[in-house]
Amino acid sequence: MVQTYLPPQMDLAHDTPPELAPIFSYLNSHSNKLYQEGYFLKLHDLDSRGRPSSERVWVECFAQLVGTVLSLWDAAALDTAGEDGEVVPTFINLSDASLKMVCTVRIERVCRSRKADSPTD
Asked: Which residues pair with 70 in a beta bridge?
């Protein structure tokens, strides 16, 4: 089961100047907007501390971009959990992250989430 990340809403205090109300409304709407979702391949290149990963492998993920937060679920774990199961996502705050887009990729290994699906001879 995929649950969308919902950041907290900014509340308007009773002493908030009326000129600032549209700004808070704008910030709330953008921090909660679902910009994009879908499946893609992610290279597990660095660990959570920014060090090179001991196992560089392509992983199929399902992702949702809500505001500046990218939520990632392992696609194989989602398939295993089914409709009623729950899979905990990984969160990346894009305002604090560094990303590198790869235009062309030469895949030398089979994607980890697809190994179980491939037929054996």
From this structure: 65, 92
As a whole number of Å, the end-to-end CA separation of the chain is 33
**Amino acid in position 38:** G
Asked whether the whole model's pTM tops 0.90, one would answer no
Q: Across-strand partners of 34?
A: 66
The kind and range of the H/E element at 59 are: strand 58-66
Torsion angle in degrees (nearest 10) through CA of 100, 49, 109, 70: -50
Q: Which amino acid is at 112?
A: R
pLDDT band at 121 (very low <50, low <70, confident <90, very high): very low
Query: What residue ranges do the domains of the chain occupy?
Result: 35-114
Is the pLDDT confidence value at 92 over 50?
yes
